[in-house]
Write a structure and sequence with these properties.
This protein is an alpha/beta fold. The chain folds into three domains: about 190 residues, FAD/NAD(P)-binding domain (3-Layer(bba) Sandwich); about 90 residues, Alpha-Beta Plaits (2-Layer Sandwich), CATH 3.30.70; about 70 residues. About 30% of the residues lie in helices and about 30% in strands. The chain is built from nine helices and 17 strands. The strands form three sheets. Strands 1, 2, 8, 9, 10, 11 and 17 form a seven-stranded mixed beta sheet that branches. The protein has a seven-stranded mixed beta sheet with strand order 6-5-13-14-15-12-16. A three-stranded antiparallel beta sheet has the order 3-7-4. Helix 1 packs parallel to helix 4 and helix 5 crosses helix 9. The longest helix is centred in the last third of the chain and has 17 residues. The N and C termini lie far apart (about 50 Å).
């Protein structure tokens, strides 16, 4: 069976792309299909991001205006921190396209046609957009951000519904950079997540022990859970601004470089890439990559080098940022929207020696 566009993987990147294409060209609705192994998407993850405007109000589960760090409350204005639960997102983007529930075994471009072999059939397409690696990806490092989160309900009201805890370093670091991430859903419910930056993912047993230590014997009921591991590596960064015009297999999502290496944030970057791809396809332009400004690629490499070599330094670095820099400026920097003066304002609060040595290692 032939399609104009096949999208491999039915996660956020793929679904954003399908939405963007049909919004620009409604006639493409019956010319696009997904190949997704899972026949039922559940709440397998929570996507979070910050925006100045609530442009995704139809999908957003919750939003917050403040962050608490070391028992002090900080405003995020003009940003709000927002959450989308994957189950809600999957449900609202369901049934707009054909979804083929099969496992992709092989993908190969032959001339202007792409052949996709699944465990049940063979499909062809003019273009394949894939968030699933179609060939093994060799990474220079196994460094990752891993997490275990639980949606918890407590007997007593414990939370301010307008503030999150992005990085609570009050748990033991155990020779890692690790923290607790708290998103209140009400005064008595919250997502409490243990996150670690390390060469190997944190085990469930380790995460649960840290969670219990963090909650200090407070009783709760488990409502739901999630876990995951996100690669923290510059290896997936795009090396050019556009794909070659003859290329018909286009990586999207994490495999396409949409994940920011130093933070793991992907959702809005994947959405922006989807919009750019859709515009290019509809207008006959070269398909863009997720290419980033050289400065921010350089900054990410420095931080990753430090976190890998001196993992316990992460607590000090991130605490300095949250305590000495306006939170809105930190978020703007992480969005890669800052200028040199704003970046200098951030850099001057960081430990200079460790960053200078990392810069020398990178340049040499």
């Amino acid at each position: 069976m032939h399609h104009h566009i096949l999208i491999l993987g039915g996660g956020a990147a793929g679904r954003w792309l399908g939405e963007a294409l049909v919004n620009k060209r409604p006639d493409l609705l019956n010319k696009i299909a997904y190949i997704e192994k899972d026949n039922q998407k559940v709440n397998d993850r929570t996507w979070c991001f910050w925006e100045k405007e609530n442009n995704l109000g139809g999908y957003t589960t919750r939003n917050w205006m403040h962050n608490r760090h070391n028992d002090k409350r900080y405003s995020l204005y003009p940003y709000t921190y927002q959450m989308i639960r994957s189950s809600d997102f999957y449900e609202k983007t369901l049934n707009k396209h054909t979804i083929i529930h099969e496992e992709v075994l092989h993908c190969e471009q032959r001339g202007d046609v792409v052949y996709v072999q699944t465990n049940k059939s063979t499909y062809t397409a003019d273009y394949v957009m894939t968030s699933v690696p179609v060939e093994p990806i060799k990474l220079s490092s196994t460094f990752c951000q891993s997490f275990y989160g639980l949606y918890l309900e407590f007997a007593e009201p414990l939370f301010d519904e307008q503030e999150i805890r992005m990085m609570d370093f009050s748990i033991p670091q155990q020779s890692y950079t690790q923290f607790v991430y708290v998103l209140p859903l009400s005064k008595t419910q919250a997502l409490v997540e243990v996150t670690r930056f390390a060469d190997a993912p944190i085990s469930e047993q380790e995460a649960m022990a840290l969670r219990d230590q963090y909650l200090q014997g407070i009783h709760y009921t488990i409502l739901d859970k999630e876990s995951g591991s996100i690669p923290m590596t510059p290896d997936l960064d795009a090396k050019r601004k556009h794909h070659h015009r003859d290329l018909r297999v286009i990586p999207i999502g994490t495999v396409g470089g949409a994940t920011k290496p130093s933070t793991g944030y992907t959702f809005l970057r994947a959405k922006a890439h989807a919009e750019n791809i859709a515009y290019a396809l509809v207008n006959g332009k070269a398909i863009p990559t997720t290419y980033r400004n050289w400065r921010f690629r350089f900054y990410d490499r420095l931080l990753l080098d430090i976190l890998k070599r001196f993992p316990v330094s992460g607590k000090d670095i991130f605490s300095r940022l949250f305590e000495r820099v306006p939170h809105a400026l930190v978020l703007k920097f992480l969005d890669e929207q800052t200028n040199f003066l704003e970046e200098w304002r951030i850099f001057k609060v960081l430990p200079k020696s460790i960053f200078l040595k990392a810069a020398l290692r990178d340049l040499l």
